[in-house]
Amino acid sequence: MAARQENAPVHAAIIMDGNGRWAENKGISKYFGHDAGMRAMTAIVRHASDIGIQYLTVYAFSTENWKRGAEEISGIFKLLMIYVDKELDELWRNNVKVNVVGDTSEMPKDVRKYLERTVSRTAENTGLVFNICLGYGSRAEIVRAARRLAEDALAGNLAVGAIDEKALASRLYTGDMPDPDFIIRPGGEKRLSNFLLWQAAYSEFIFSDVLWPDFTPEEFDNAIMAFSARKRRFGGRS
Ligand code: IPE
Ligand code: IPE
Ligand code: MG
Fold it and tell me: Which of 40, 80, 219, 224 is 20 to 30 A from 210 (CA-CA)?
């Protein structure tokens, strides 16, 4: 690994968008777009791990994506199962720790079983932390954190006056992880679509017209370069 630059990112996040249009452009079913999207994800996880990124958070299925047709949804879940199973050994060998972020309770049992197996097999790994957001919505995440604050307060374990940013942030799925340094959105849209609303307070945004299945490790390196050239002030003076 090359010497770490001062402004090298610790945490990268990606909104993996554009699978449907990629398939449409090719005149093939959306299923194959999601399949190609999983392949792109696999390559980026490997690359992020190779270059020493500490946290990689990807948006794979949102709370709003439940609005899609049953066939598309079950296709995405089936592919997820195939990929986590196929990649488990390699993830483990590469010391990647997998976290599932979001509410998977409505997902099919067999999908959850595969996910749980991946999470538990890689739990002790100390390399790249790979957060895969599934059934994830940032508003739902913040509501969940607010409930947990209320529960702790009612149980007498937390004084209302002690509720501060840290107390709330620690109850998000991302817990004590650092906020993402940058968020990449391929696929041409320029919005967050309910992704990491709290955590993105000072993230740099990198938009790309490349559709997610065509997103390569080189594109990821370009995003890092773009990030490294940005001046971050966090409200202060540089
Ligand atoms: C992203 O690709 C994958 C999910 C949201 C599950 P899309 O399926 O949203 O692709 P487009 O935006 O229709 O091209
Ligand atoms: C965002 O993409 C969610 C994921 C990539 C998982 P969408 O395709 O769902 O977002 P919108 O509908 O264009 O905002
Ligand atoms: Mg989309």
Answer: 80
Which numbered atom of ligand 1 lies nearest the CA of 189? 12
The CATH number covering residue 222 comes to 3.40.1180.10
> Can you tell me the mean pLDDT for 118-144?
98
The residue whose CA is least distant from atom 14 of ligand 2 is 193
Q: Maximum CA pair distance of the chain?
A: 59
Q: Which residues line ligand 1 (CB under 6 A)?
A: 16-21, 61, 65, 76, 187
Instruction: Confirm whether 65 is a catalytic residue.
Output: yes
Q: Answer yes or no: is pLDDT of 195 > 80.
A: yes
Task: Measure 80 CA to ligand 3 centroid, in angstroms.
Answer: 17
Q: Which two tokens stand for residue 2?
A: 């090359």
Q: What is the mean pLDDT of residues 45-50?
A: 98
Distance from C-alpha of 155 to C-alpha of 152, rounded to nearest angstrom: 5
pTM, rounded to two decimals: 0.97
Which residues of 33-75 form beta strands (DSSP E)? 55-62
Residue pLDDT, tens place only, 141-171: 999 999 999 999 999 999 999 999 999 999 9
| DSSP one-letter code for 101 | E
Q: Which residues of 214-223 are buried (b: 16+ CB within 10 A; e: fewer)?
A: bbeeebbeeb
Q: What is the residue range of 129's domain? A: 11-140+180-228
What ligand has the least distance to the C-alpha of 62? 2
Residue 195: count of CB within 10 angstroms of its CB: 23
Q: Total domain count for the chain?
A: 1
